[in-house]
Write a structure and sequence with these properties.
about 325 residues, alpha+beta, Ribosomal Protein S5, domain 2, 2 domains, 8-stranded antiparallel beta sheet, binds ligand DP6
Length: about 325
């Protein structure tokens, strides 16, 4: 009746930006990401409580945060045949929410796997991925480790929209992701609102969808041959294109700040001097640098020289992992 699961956040190399169904969280396009270790969220779910309780990082969750968790728990109760009562969920991340990395992706992935386990359901990454998706789209890519592709799917009920692992974490152990925290402030426009605004008002949106969809198989092919330069170039152009569709929204949406652009400029200069380093950028000002093990220390120094207040060096992470069952 009780299970504890650890999951890693993920960084998209081909981003998810925009839903075709807001309620079921179905994307307009496929995306591809990589899980980040050692960052993680650990979540415990226990059925049999007096009422539903949701605790995240030591606080009782309220409003939409609580609703999203209850939605996942409700789906698990349905899958288990309605015999389960209220649940207590306790979740804790080992990295600051202010890191600008969505801890929600790791949190909902851990929740989906833990809740199914606590309910006595047979482990199934595909079903868990769809469950995690109901909490947050990008969470469907954190159920399995390594490199995961979220296939957009075609069906209206979302039963073909889930992430599949293309390569596990051991496929490319030398790859490094260096998170450069330039600004710890909460972003002004959350991804959920920003992507909706972009879908509704950006004239470039259709072009984004078409391009991102075509980039996913190219990214898979590049990952297959572990070509860092090709991957870096693809990740950068995809990030620029996601941000370009957002710049073109009305009113415009800009997640970058001067320090973001300063770092990007510096990175280009270092690249001209032969350093293999590229970046990607989610809906916030903090870039994630892509490099290899031989250059991760230099990448950290580059980030700090550009004003990073904190830097987190990451390696490809593994699957969501069962830590305990009671
Ligand atoms: C820019 O998964 O946080 O990080 O589905 O509304 O919860 P919701 O959004 P979320 O959006 C992530 C957007 C992104 C790109 C990505 O991770 O693919």
């Amino acid at each position: 009746m009780k299970a504890t699961v650890l999951a890693h956040p993920n960084i998209a190399l081909v981003k998810y930006w925009g839903k075709r169904d807001d309620a079921l969280i179905l994307p307009h396009q496929s995306s591809l990401s990589l899980t980040l270790a050692p960052l993680s969220v650990t979540t415990t779910v226990e059925f049999g409580a007096a009422s539903d309780q949701v605790e995240i990082n030591g606080h009782t969750a309220k409003g939409s945060e609580r609703d999203r968790v209850l939605r996942v728990l409700e789906a698990v109760r349905g899958e288990a045949g309605g015999k389960l009562g209220p649940a207590k969920m306790v979740s804790r991340g080992d990295f600051p929410a202010s890191a600008g990395l969505a801890s929600s992706a790791a949190g909902f992935a851990a929740l989906a796997v833990a809740a199914r386990e606590a309910a006595g359901l047979k482990a199934d990454p595909k079903v868990a991925s769809m469950l995690a998706r109901l909490g947050s789209g990008s969470a469907c890519r954190s159920v399995q480790g390594g490199f995961c592709e979220w296939r957009r799917g075609e069906r209206a009920d979302g039963t073909d929209s889930y992430a599949v692992q293309r390569f596990d974490a051991k496929h490319w152990p030398e790859l490094r992701m260096v998170v450069a925290i330039l600004n710890r402030d909460e972003k002004e426009v959350k991804s959920r609102d920003g992507m909706k605004h972009t879908v509704d008002t950006s004239p470039y949106y259709a072009a984004w969808v078409k391009d991102a969809e075509a980039e996913v198989p190219r990214a898979v092919e590049i990952l297959q041959r572990k070509d860092l330069q090709a991957l870096g170039e693809l990740a950068e152009r995809n990030a620029w294109r996601m941000h370009s569709t957002a710049f073109a929204a009305d009113p415009p949406l800009c997640y970058m700040n001067p320090a973001t652009l300063g770092l990007i400029q510096h990175l280009r200069e270092q690249r001209k001097k032969g350093m293999p380093v590229w970046f990607t950028l989610d809906a916030g000002p903090n870039p994630v640098l892509l490099t290899d093990a031989a250059h991760e220390v230099a990448a950290e120094a580059l980030a700090r020289a550009c004003g990073a207040v904190d830097v987190i060096r990451c390696v490809p992470g593994g699957d969501a992992e069962l830590k305990g069952e009671h």
